[in-house]
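I am still getting used to backbone structure tokens and would like to learn alongside you. To get us started, please write out a protein record for me. Once you have written the record down, we can walk along the chain together.
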Amino acid sequence: KMPQLLVLVLNKVECLESILENLEESGIKGATILESKGMAHSLAEFSELRFMASLRMLLDPERQESKTVFMVISEDKIKLVSEIINKATGGLDKPDTGIIFTLPISYTEGFEI
């Protein structure tokens, strides 16, 4: 089975701790977490006059950053990770919650999955 890079861009950052705890309990122990920011908030910083960026800031003034989580997992763990994330967030189908995607990895070194 080919290893996968699963990327979670989490807008609902208050769910991160729950997600990480549930991943660990399920035997998934490795992840890298970066601070990130969406395009709308960046545009608002560059130009206060942009209508859409300003509107976005009015609708969600508290959340200005996201968390991007990278994890290398085996292909057969994708569904499990997706279920954990969806349960913790209330569903990625809800607006402004987050997204996940995977990419195949052809080479790894320094750890086992």
About this structure: The first helix runs from residue 16 to 25. The chain has a mean pLDDT of 86. The beta strands are 3-10, 32-36, 66-74, 98-104. The radius of gyration is 16 Å.
